[in-house]
Each structure stands twice: as C-alpha cells, then as structure tokens.
Amino acid sequence: MTAIVNPQREKMKSRIAWSIAIFFAVIWAVITLGPFVFMVLNSFRDKKMMGRQGVLHFPDPWYFKNYPDVISNGFFGFFFRSVLIVSISLILMLVIASFASYPLARMKFRLRGFLYAGIVAMMSVPMHVTLIPVYQMTNQMGLINNLFSLLGPYVAFALPMSVFILTGFMMTIPHEMEEAAVIDGCNKYNMFFRIILPLSKAGISTLAIYNVVGMWNEFAFANTFLNDIQVKTLPLALGAFKGEHAQDTPLILTVLTLSALPTIVLFIIFQDKLVKGMMAGAVKG
Amino acid sequence: MAKLQGMAKRDARSTAVAASIFLFPAVALLIVYMVYPIIDTFLISRLKWNGFYTAEKINVGWENWIVLFQDEQFWNSFLHNVILMVCSILIQIPLGMALATFLDAGGKKFNIFKILWFLPYLMSSVAVGFLFYYLLATNGGLISGIGTLLAGKRTFVDLLGQSPHALYAVIGVVAWQYTPFYMVYFIAGYSNIDPSLYEAAVIDGANRRQYIFKVAIPLLGPIFKTACTMSLIGSLKYFDLIWNMTQGGPNHGTELMATYMYKTSFQKFNMGYGSAIAGGMFILITVIALLFQKVFVVKEDY
After folding, report:
1. Would you call B127 and A133 a contact, using CB atoms and an 8 Å cutoff?
2. Is B272:B46 a contact under the CB 8 Å cutoff?
3. Nearest to A159 among B14, B30, B53 (CB)
4. Which domain does B223 fall in, by range?
5. How does pLDDT run across A144-174, given as a tens digit for each residue?
6. Which of B125, B126, B214, B225 to mutate to test the interface with A (most CBs of A within 10 A)?
7. Distance between A43 CA and the closest CA of chain B, angstroms
8. Whole-number mean pLDDT of chain A?
9. Which residue of B has its CA nearest to A158?
C-alpha cells in the first residue's frame, strides 16, 4: 500500500460514503413503509371522503366504523377457520415429518437413498401440476366446500422440505446417545420417542414457524376447493369482501390491515426466531 | 459364526420393519398427493374433458400437446415468466445484498432499518396483491395521489391498465415483497464468515471497503447461487400475487403460465388442455432449473 495516507482525508471520505449510504437507506425505508402507511391511514377514512380528500391527506375526520363493520361481517369466522385448519395440519405434518426423518437419518436400510432423493426432489414441484387431479380426488370424496379438504394437500406439500430439514437436523445428534440407550435395552421405537424426538425439539420448532407462515397464507388450494363463503379461510376473506364492496377501498384496506396484523404482532414478539424460521427453507442447495 | 449371521440378519429385518412403519404415513401421503397427481395430470392432458366426472371423456391423443406447442398465449405467458425471473434475479438479489452489506458494515446501530426493511416479507402474497391493486389504482391510488401533488392538478396514473406498464408494475411489486427475503438471507451469509478473516485483511492493510468487495462478497458465492436458484424456481411458478392483483390482465399483459393454467381449467373448465399447460409448465421448470445448476457449476469451477 502507499506509505502516504492522509488520515483526515480518509476519515472525510468515509464520512461522505456513509452519508450517501444512509440517504439511500432512508429512501428504501420510505419505499417499504409507504404502502403500509397508505393501508393503515386509509382504513380510517370514510369511503366518501376518499375521492374528496385524496389519499395523501390525513383522514379528516378520522373514521373508525370500518373496523366494526369488517368484524361484524364475519371476519373472525375467516380467522378461526384458518386457525383451525392450520393448527391441525401443522401438528399432523410435524408428527409425520419427524416419523419419516428418523429412519432416514438414523437407520441403514436398502431403499434409504432412493426414498430420501425422491422426497428431496419433490421440494420444487409446482402445486399447479397436481391441482387438477387433487381437485378431482377431493370432488369424488365429496369434500368440495369442506374445510378439511385442505388437510391432505397442506400436510403433503409441507412434507418434503420439512423431512429434508429435519433429517439434516437429526443426523447431527451424536451417536453415543443412541449406543448408550441400546446398552440399556432400548429398542428402535423407544429410541425415537425417548431420545431422538426430545433432542430434535429445536429443529421441529423452526419447522413449525416456517410452515405455519406458509399454511396461513396458502391461497391456491383454498381458492379452488372452497367456494362457499361460510367455509372460506383468511386469505380468501379479501376476495370475499372485495366481491361485495369492490368500490369501498377503505373497507378492503381495513380487512388487509386486520389480516396482516397477526404476523406483524408475532414478528414483534419473536423477531429473531420468526426470521430464522421463515428462512428455514433457504438452506436447500 | 452362523449364529452371528443370523443375528445380523434378524437385526437388518427388524430395522427394515421399523423403517417401513415410520416412513409409511409420509410416503403414502406423498404418493396420493404428489406422485399420483403428477402422473394423472399427464394422463388427463390426453383428454378432452370439462372436469365433471359424470361428463364424457374423449381421448384426443396428443392433440392438446400439439395445440400447446402452437399456442401463442402459452408462449407469451412463458415469456412473461422469463422476464419476471430475469428481473427478479437482477433486482432483488443485488438489492438484498446491498441492504445486507449496509447492515453488516453498520452493525447494531442500524437495527431499526433491518426491522423496517423486513416488514414487506411479513405480508402474504395475496395481501400484497390486494394492497397494490388499490395502491396503484387509477382513481384513489397512492401513485395517482403523488402525481396529483406533483402536477398541481388532478392526475391519473394508469399503471395496471395498459400493457407493458402492468408487467413492470408487477415486477416492482414482487421486488418490494421479496427483497427483504434475500436481505435476511445475505445477512445470515455475512454472519457465517469467520471474523478472523476480517482481522487478517486488516493486518494486511485492507480497509473496510476492500474487505467487503475483495473478501466477503467472493465468499458469498455459494449463497448467491442458492438465492438465484430459489428466485428462478419461484418466478416460474408464480401465481398468488398476480391472480389477486391483475388476474393476468390487462388483455393477458401479465399472464403467467400458472394463471393461464388456472383460467383454462377452473374458469373455462377445459381440464384436458389445462392439464397440458400444467404438464408443459412442469417440464419447462425442471429443464430450466437443471440447466441453471449445470451452467453455474461450470462457472464456479475456474
């Protein structure tokens, strides 16, 4: 490197560079926040005032009736149906995924490599390729317009990624634990419930967060199987409200604000854990 | 000896039994909801069928596939997917990396930016689609509002109503939603770099900027590749946001393979042809993803 470095000049240069960087950082923050501000502000506006005041004006007067309107029009119904189907699917999926990961991670048997490769390959299958046959199956079982028609697709589509991550996790459990258990007369079934499952808790909770977000937001299967407004889940609530009040922008923005709230609240409470969970899928290579 | 072999055999058999029991539910579900439907999609693609199972199914052989090959609308949709894919990779990944670099260099004091920048990724694609449908609306949208403010008179900015603009608007919205994802991804990448490398670089006389560009970014190579692969597969099967924002409109201007497939199958009830589109989509995605993996490996080698 050059021997003559003017420290003051270097410091100046770095300060200018940081100012420029912060300037752009603020611009990007405005771009990310703008739509949220638009959403929340306009949900407190009377629809008649929307055209008259323009969107940049603060609501004047603040109008609070959109929220009770949305809630009394069955918003909690959508919400609780989502809670119900997501929690059942999630628990079932986690049980099945940990069952499947155990032999893939800790046992030697002939089809191991084949099954593992097959399951991993299914991670990138687009749901649209399965949609028509799964719809036909659901139809033949008489489950169209039944909330539980979503159970099978939700569990099945979450499995490949979950098995992949959990198998990787279970492989890192030290073998000494198992050997000690075998000497104590533990068979393969007890081994799973007493040793492997308790030690995989951290991996399972990451998976739970990752999948709960995916299932909570799932749209295409729900939109195909559930036509009756009485059975629709939360992602379909927006379409349902828009169908009835297409011109009432503030009302739709209220529905949007309310449906975005749960994840934002969870984010505030469990910031790092949620981010880590949402990124779980990113480990695939 | 014989006794030992017998024991080993018995052990292998009991392992196989246990493995089958544990794997059975997952394998059964995957066969019912993934393997069988994929095969069935290709079988249905040889039928002329409106999807009602009491209705007649006419076997038309390869006709749907021949039509698909010549279907301008399908290739047009595919082109939109490719444009979306290229733009996603070119916008979101460098931007996500720049944001991550800023946060990594700035340390804890810029945590507030990290939180604010992450927010869009917390919204579902459906919600983002609806939000921007209203935000970009000609009448009562935010962009029109800003236009009115700047022009000093009532201005309507029509982004979703005309053809090339709508696709660009969609690309921008997708970038808004997914950039945070790549940002967090690259933050994780930076935090995995051994801190002793920074110390070594400083001892060798490098400043912060040289460390970032000469040491840290080259080390992120594998992460970069994974990010591109995810963006690639994601862009080719994109659906939720477009469906809720533009429904593929105006006049197919933002039509993607998935929305075209959905319309054909569940609005026009042409399930035979819809299956052919789905099958074509599956083949194209697989081929592009495999090609990308091949090309990238070659590049990483030298």
Report:
1. no
2. yes
3. B30
4. 71-301
5. 999 999 999 999 999 999 999 999 999 988 8
6. B126
7. 12
8. 88
9. B30
| Interface with chain A: mutation pick from B38, B108, B130, B133, highest number of A CBs within 10 Å | B130
Question: Is there a contact between B15 and A126 if contact means CB atoms under 8 Å apart?
Answer: no
For the stretch B206-250, pLDDT in tens is 887 788 888 888 888 888 888 898 899 999 999 999 999 999 878
- A141: CB partners within 8 A, 6+ apart: A149
Domain count across chain B: 1
Residue B295 banded pLDDT, cuts 50, 70, 90: confident
The answer for B45, left when phi > 0, alpha when psi is -120 to 50, beta otherwise, is alpha
- What pLDDT is recorded for position B1? 56
Using the structure block, give the residue that is written with the tokens 């480990």: A283
Contacts of residue A128 in chain B, CB cutoff 8 Å? 237, 239, 257-258, 261-262, 278, 281
- Maximum separation of any 2 CA atoms in chain A, in Å: 82
Cβ <8 Å between B148 and A50 = no
Considering the four listed CATH numbers 1.10.3720.10, 1.10.375.10, 3.30.750.24, 1.10.260.40, the one that applies to the domain covering A75-283 is: 1.10.3720.10
Chains A and B: how many Cβ contacts under 8 Å?
244
Range of weakest confidence among A173-177, B38-42, B76-80: A173-177
Give the span between the Cα atoms of A104 and A98, in whole angstroms. 10
Q: Cβ neighbours of residue B2 under 8 Å, at least 6 residues apart?
A: none
Report the predicted TM-score, pTM, of the whole model to 2 decimal places: 0.90
Nearest C-alpha in B relative to A37: B142
ipTM of the complex: 0.89
Residue B29 falls inside a structural domain: no
Establish if B275 belongs to a structural domain. Answer: yes
Considering Cα of A23, then A27, then A28, then A34, what sign does the dihedral take?
positive
CB contact under 8 A, A129 and B41: yes
B47 found inside a domain: no
Choose, out of A14, A53, A128, the residue to mutate when testing the contact with B (most B CBs < 10 Å).
Answer: A128
Question: Residue B10: pLDDT band by 50, 70, 90 thresholds?
Answer: confident
Q: Which residue of B has its CA nearest to A33?
A: B116
Residues counted in chain A: 285
pLDDT at res. A263? 86
Average pLDDT rounded to a whole number, residues A94-104? 96
Q: What is the CATH number of the domain that holds B145?
A: 1.10.3720.10
Residue A93's pLDDT is what?
97
Among the partner-chain residues A17, A156, A278, the one whose CB lies closest to the CB of B29 is A156
User: Does the distance separating the beta carbons of B141 and A55 come in below 8 Å?
Assistant: yes
pLDDT tens figures, B127-172: 999 999 989 888 778 888 888 888 877 777 888 888 888 999 999 9
DSSP H helices, chain A, are 7-43, 47-53, 66-70, 76-106, 112-121, 128-140, 151-171, 175-183, 188-191, 197-199, 201-216, 220-225, 234-244, 249-269, 271-278
Residues A244/A245/A250/A252 CA torsion (nearest 10 deg): 30
